[in-house]
Write a structure and sequence with these properties.
This protein is α/β, with parallel strands linked by helices. The chain has one domain: Rossmann fold (3-Layer(aba) Sandwich), CATH 3.40.50.300. Helix content is 26%, strand content 31%. It has 7 helices and 13 strands. Strand 12 and strand 13 form a beta hairpin. The longest helix has 15 residues. The protein is globular.
C-alpha cells in the first residue's frame, strides 16, 4: 500500500479512506465559487504546519493577494517562507511591479510552460517540498485546449518525479460537468470535483471523488461547507440531485 498524504481537510480524508496516495497528481475541478482556491490553500497550509514543506504556484492571482486570502482563514504563511519550508511561485505578474520584485521565484513569461516547470523545480528542491498546489492549471491551456493533456502530463512527470503529492486546480464553466480540458481526466491520478448547484432557490455545495489511483474511496456525492476556518466535508451527508433534491444522513 502506498503511503498516504492526509489533506487535513475535515471529513475529506475519511472519504478518501485515509488520504491521497503519495506522489499522486490530483485534478481539483469545479466551476466559479465552488471553493477550489480555498481547498488548495487549506491543503498546503495543513502540510506546512505539520512539517511537510510545500510550494504554491500562483497563476491567476498576485502572490501578495494569495497570502492575504490565506490569512483571512488564519493561515499566515510568512513565517514558513522565512524558515524556508514554503514558497510561492509567481507565475502571474511576469516580474512586473514593485511587489513582484520582492518575490524569489518568478516566471518571467507565464505562458511558457517549460520556463514555469524550471522555476517550479527550483522551488521544490529549495524547500524540499512534499506538497504542491497549482492554481489554476487551466490558465496554461485555456487558449489552446488541445494542449491540455500534454500540459498535465508534463507537470505530472515533474511533480511525481520529485516526490510531491499535488493538487492541480482546473476550471470549468458554470454549466459544464467536465474536468477542464480534453484528456486531462486520463492524465491525472485523481479527480476531485466540487460543485455548486442552485436547487429550489438555494445554492448547495457538494464534492465527489471521481477517481483516485492507489486507494478505494467513497463513491457518493458529499455535502460540504466553506466556514471561516476553511472547507468542512460531511462524510455522512449525501447530496442527491435529480428530479427531486435531498441531503440525506448515512451511517
Amino acid at each position: 500500500m502506498p503511503e498516504r498524504i492526509r489533506t487535513g481537510i475535515p471529513g475529506l480524508d475519511e472519504i478518501l479512506h485515509g488520504g491521497i496516495p503519495e506522489r499522486n497528481v490530483v485534478l481539483l475541478s469545479g466551476g466559479p465559487g465552488t471553493g477550489k482556491s480555498i481547498f488548495s490553500y487549506q491543503y498546503i497550509w495543513n502540510g506546512i504546519k505539520n512539517g511537510e514543506p510545500a510550494v504554491f504556484v500562483a497563476l491567476e492571482e498576485h502572490p501578495v493577494q494569495v497570502r492575504i486570502n490565506m490569512s483571512q482563514f488564519g493561515w499566515d504563511v510568512r513565517q514558513y517562507e522565512r524558515e524556508g519550508t514554503f514558497a510561492v511561485v509567481d507565475a502571474f505578474t511576469g516580474g512586473i511591479g514593485e511587489a513582484a520584485k520582492k518575490e524569489r521565484y518568478v516566471v518571467r513569461d507565464p505562458e511558457d510552460v517549460g520556463l514555469l516547470i524550471d522555476v517550479l523545480k527550483e522551488a521544490i528542491r529549495d524547500v524540499g517540498a512534499k506538497r504542491v498546489a497549482i492554481d489554476s492549471v487551466s490558465t496554461l491551456y485555456l487558449a489552446k485546449p488541445a494542449l491540455a493533456r500534454r500540459t498535465v502530463m508534463m507537470l505530472k512527470r515533474v511533480l511525481s518525479g520529485l516526490g510531491t503529492t499535488s493538487i492541480l486546480v482546473s476550471q470549468v464553466s458554470v454549466t459544464e460537468r467536465g474536468f477542464g480540458g480534453p484528456g486531462v481526466e486520463h492524465a491525472a491520478d485523481g479527480i476531485i470535483r466540487l460543485d455548486l448547484d442552485e436547487i429550489e432557490g438555494e445554492l448547495v455545495r457538494s464534492l465527489i471523488v471521481w477517481k483516485m489511483r492507489g486507494t478505494s474511496h467513497s463513491m457518493r456525492r458529499h455535502y460540504f461547507e466553506i466556514t471561516d476556518k476553511g472547507i468542512v466535508v460531511y462524510p455522512n451527508k449525501v447530496v442527491k440531485i435529480g428530479r427531486t433534491f435531498s441531503i440525506e444522513e448515512t451511517k
